[in-house]
Write a structure and sequence with these properties.
About 40% of the residues lie in helices and about 20% in strands. By secondary structure, it is of the alpha/beta class. Strand 11 (about 325-335), helix 12 (about 340-350) and strand 12 (about 355-360) form a beta-alpha-beta unit. It is globular and about 65 Å long. The two termini are about 45 Å apart.
C-alpha cells in the first residue's frame, strides 16, 4: 500500500497498524501522488490550539474512507509522552478508517504492540483505579471486552510480582539451542541435533565457562538470582550427563539461595527420560514444561514433529512420577491440518491431564520458518478466533486464570499468546521477562541480556552470538564482555 505521511514522520507506528489491519500489504513511500482509486493511505497530523489531531484518508478497493482521532496535545516538555500521544492519535485515525473499509474490528482494537498489558499496568501505577485503566483500554484503544478482561487479569498478576521484587534481584536465563528436529513454524536459531550431535558436548563445556564468569560478576555486584529458566531450543536435548554438568556449574558458581523458582523447558516429549528428570529434580528444578502443541497425530506430522500423542502421554507420566510441583503444557491455535474440532479435542485432553499451567499460543508466521514459505493448509482467522474463544471459556471454567500474555508479528488474526495457571502457580520469570520488570541475564548461544533499571525507565540489550558454533568459538570474548558490563541495581 502507498503511504503518504503529512505533518509527521512516524513510519514505524503507521506500518504497525498497516501490518495489523492489512497483513498482506507492504509499505511504499512514493514521491508522486497515487493514481485515482489506487490502494493508499494519507495520514496527516496537525497540532493546533492545544489539540493533536490525526486524519486518515484510506483508499481501499476503489472506495475512500476518512476518519479523525484527537487528544490533548502533550506539548514538548516530555518527548516520550509527546511521541506516545501523537502516535496514538495517528494509529487510531488509521484504525478507524481501516475498520470501516474492512467491516470488522480487531480483538485488540488499535493496540499494536507486543505487550498490551503494559497499558493498564502503567495506568494503575500512575494512580488510576483498575476500572479506570480498563475504560482506557475501551475508550482510547477500542479493545474488545474479552481482551480487556485478559489484559486486566494479567495486569493484576504483573503488579503482584512487581511488588514482590527486591532491587538487587534479577532472573537468569540459560539457553540450549538444540532440538530433535525443526518444527515447521519455528524461526528460532536452533540446531537439529541429528546434524549437530558432536556439538553438544563442547557447547555444554562453553556454557559452563560462561556460567562461572557470570556467577563471579553477580557476586561482585551484589546481585541475587530470583528465578532460573532453562530454555531453547529444547534443553533436554542434552544428555543426562550434560544436564548434570551444566546444572552443577550453576550450583557451584551462582548463589541460588534466594531463587524461588527453577524452570526447565523440557518441551519435546521425545527428549524426556526418567534419568534426565531425576537430574533436574536433584538440582532443584521445580517447574517443567512438556509442550505437545497438539494432541492430533496428523497435526504433529504437518508441523514436523517426530513423536506421537501417545509419546506425549508417556512423557507426562514420567514427569508426574518425578514429582515436579508445577507442570506446564503448551498448545498452538492455528496449526496446519488443524480444525476447530481438533483444537478443542487437544485442549480437552490437556486439561484432563491436570497441569498447573497451560499456555495457549496463536500461530505466528515467522520469517525463516517453513510455514512462512509454504503458508498452506492453515485454518482461517475466523477458525482461530473460534479456537481461542473455546480456550478462554473452557480454561476459566476449569479453574485456570490468565497471568501473562504477549503478541507477535504475523500472528493469525492479530490475536495473542496467553499463559494460564492454577491460582498461586504463576511463573515469575515469564512475567518479569515479558513485562520487563527487572534485569534478565541470558547465557548461551542467542542469549539476549536485558539490563533493566525500572526507576530510570532504561533498558539496554547485550547479545551473545546467535549460532552454537560461533558461540563456542568466541567463548573467550563472551567471558571478557561479562567483565566489562556495568550491572545497574534496579
Amino acid at each position: 500500500m502507498k503511504l503518504y505521511l503529512k505533518g509527521h514522520d512516524y513510519k514505524y507506528a503507521t506500518e504497525q497498524m498497516l501490518l495489523m489491519l492489512f497483513p498482506g500489504q507492504r509499505p511504499e513511500y512514493p514521491a508522486e501522488p497515487t493514481a485515482e482509486g489506487e490502494d493508499s493511505l494519507v495520514l496527516t497530523l496537525s497540532r493546533t490550539a492545544g489539540r493533536a489531531t490525526g486524519h486518515a484518508v484510506l483508499t481501499w478497493e476503489g472506495r475512500r474512507y476518512s476518519r479523525f482521532a484527537w487528544a490533548a496535545d502533550p506539548g514538548e516538555d516530555d518527548r516520550l509522552e509527546r511521541d506516545r500521544v501523537l502516535q496514538r492519535v495517528l494509529k487510531n485515525a488509521f484504525y478507524r478508517a481501516g475498520t470501516d473499509a474492512l467491516g470488522r474490528e480487531s480483538a485488540w482494537g488499535a493496540l499494536t504492540g507486543v505487550r498490551p498489558v503494559k497499558v493498564p499496568t502503567k495506568a494503575i501505577t500512575k494512580g488510576l483505579t483498575p476500572a479506570q485503566a480498563e475504560r482506557q483500554l475501551r475508550d482510547l484503544y477500542r479493545v474488545s471486552p474479552d481482551r480487556r478482561r485478559l489484559a486486566m487479569d494479567c495486569a493484576r498478576a504483573t503488579l503482584a510480582v512487581r511488588d514482590s521484587l527486591k532491587p538487587e534481584e534479577l532472573s537468569l536465563y540459560v539457553g540450549v539451542p538444540f532440538c530433535p528436529t525443526r518444527c515447521a513454524y519455528c524461526s528460532f536459531v536452533s540446531a537439529d541435533v541429528g546434524k549437530t550431535l558432536s556439538m553438544l558436548e563442547p557447547y555444554a563445556q562453553a556454557l559452563c565457562r560462561e556460567i562461572a564468569a557470570a556467577g563471579a560478576m553477580l557476586k561482585r555486584a551484589g546481585r541475587k538470582v530470583r528465578s532460573v529458566y532453562f530454555g531453547g531450543g529444547t534443553p533436554t536435548t542434552l544428555s543426562a550427563q550434560q544436564l548434570d554438568l551444566v546444572m552443577s556449574a550453576l550450583e557451584q558458581h551462582v548463589d541460588l539461595s534466594g531463587c524461588t523458582e527453577y524452570t526447565v523447558e523440557a518441551g519435546r516429549p521425545d527428549t524426556i527420560t526418567a534419568e534426565k528428570l531425576s537430574v533436574l529434580r536433584q538440582h532443584g528444578c521445580d517447574r517443567i514444561s512438556v509442550n505437545p502443541q497438539s494432541m492430533s497425530e496428523a497435526v504433529l506430522r504437518a508441523i514436523g514433529r517426530s513423536h506421537t500423542p501417545e509419546d506425549i502421554l508417556k512423557a507426562w507420566d514420567l514427569v508426574a512420577q518425578a514429582g515436579f510441583p508445577v507442570r506446564n503444557m503448551d498448545l498452538i491455535a492455528g496449526l496446519p491440518a488443524d480444525s476447530e474440532a481438533g483444537f478443542r479435542d487437544s485442549l480437552d485432553r490437556v486439561i484432563a491431564l491436570d497441569p498447573e499451567n497451560i499456555t495457549v499460543h496463536t500461530l505466528a508466521l515467522k520469517k525463516g520458518s517453513r510455514l512462512m514459505l509454504e503458508g498452506s493448509g492453515l485454518p482461517t482467522p475466523e477458525a482461530v478466533a473460534a479456537m481461542l474463544d473455546y480456550a478462554w471459556q473452557t480454561l476459566r471454567a476449569a479453574g485456570y486464570v490468565p497471568y501473562y500474555l504477549y503478541r507477535q508479528k504475523y500472528m493469525s488474526g492479530g490475536f495473542e499468546n496467553v499463559g494460564w495457571c492454577r491460582p498461586g502457580t504463576e511463573s515469575l520469570y515469564n512475567i518479569c521477562m515479558m513485562e520487563e520488570l527487572h534485569t534478565i541475564v541470558s547465557l548461551g548461544s542467542g542469549g539476549v541480556t536485558k539490563l533493566i533499571d525500572p526507576a530510570a525507565g532504561s533498558l539496554k540489550r547485550l547479545s551473545n552470538p546467535k549460532f552454537p558454533k560461533e558461540y563456542i568459538e568466541h567463548i573467550d570474548d563472551i567471558i571478557a564482555q561479562k567483565e566489562e558490563i556495568a550491572w545497574p541495581i534496579s
